[in-house]
């Protein structure tokens, strides 16, 4: 492959409200086209209002943007860095328009999800395509679930969290890796052959557990489920898993949210509030490990992913065995057809 001439980088993320008045409009954006009633959204809105109606993801994106700009400058990569979101300001459509105005012709997108499924990959590709019908061309950076810059920070966080339970026997402590649950139909269609989302997360969990070296047994469980109860989603839920651990005589649990790059709302609410309270009720000692955020190794990872696309001769840093690719197959992660009413 020949080197590609890119002239910008864009951080593409989920977006989140910046104040109480933003919460319901933001949530309506998230579920647009799904016929979710406002009554259900009001329940979710309370999670945001618990934090003043402000999602932490925005500040985390700004911190990552600042760190990435410094990292690229240090490496002599003179590309401007933009930011566009799926569900709230700055919207990707507005960012693409600004890029066109600035003369950007071809850019690389770093998406704040390392994994492959409809919601974590293909939907972002659709967002990019819709926003760039009039240009510029934006190519999405590959999955990075097994990159050392992703695995290393998670492993260090697990090791630090486990150290707080060092007074317990190793066999009394369990390590629970968590990620956002998705419908089983989405899992079965993730990747070109199905099952990619869960397979990638299992690989990340294995790599993080090995590098952390705590000796604790581990499980991959799920969080943040939504949608009607009759629709099957990936299980077990973290709260159900904590109950099973307590019944099995486990005394302490380290929870590592390997499905997330930063401590946004689904970490701070679902794990730091709900799951922590479940553990307290069960008498389990509970420690939540951190996420990469703007860890220097994570920022360096983004720069390396950019460099490998600019110049395909640059070695690709990977720790896993699952295949990765730069351009997703056309039929990859197609959404399941919605049932007729």
Fold topology:
Blueprint (H helix, E strand, L loop, with lengths): L7 E6 L9 H8 L7 H12 L6 H19 L6 E5 L6 H10 L4 E6 L6 H14 L5 E4 L7 H16 L9 E8 L3 H6 L6 H17 L4 E7 L14 H10 L4 E5 L8 H4 L1 H13 L2 E4 L7 H15 L31
Parallel strand pairs: 1-2, 1-3, 3-4, 5-6, 5-7, 7-8
Helix pairs in contact: 1-2, 3-12, 4-5, 6-8, 6-12, 9-11
Please name the defining characteristics of this protein:
single chain; 341 residues; alpha/beta; Rossmann fold; 2 domains; four-stranded parallel sheet; 42% helix
Description:
The protein is α/β, with parallel strands linked by helices and 341 residues long. It has 2 domains: 153 residues, Rossmann fold, CATH 3.40.50; 141 residues, Rossmann fold. It has 12 helices and 8 strands. The protein has a 4-stranded parallel beta sheet with strand order 2-1-3-4, with helices on both faces. Strand 3, helix 5 and strand 4 form a beta-alpha-beta unit. The mean pLDDT is 96.
Q: What is the total domain count?
A: 2
Number of helices: 12
Main sheet: strand order: 2-1-3-4
User: Which radius of gyration do the C-alpha atoms yield?
Assistant: 20 Å
Helix content: 40-55%
Cα separation of the termini: 48 Å
Here the CATH topology of the largest domain equals Rossmann fold
Residue-averaged pLDDT = 96
Largest sheet geometry: 4 strands, parallel
Level-1 CATH class name of the largest domain: Alpha Beta
Helical/strand content category? alpha/beta
E-strand count: 8
Uncertain runs with pLDDT below 50, 5 residues or more? none
Quick overview:
The protein has 341 residues and is an alpha/beta fold. 42% of the residues lie in helices and 13% in strands.
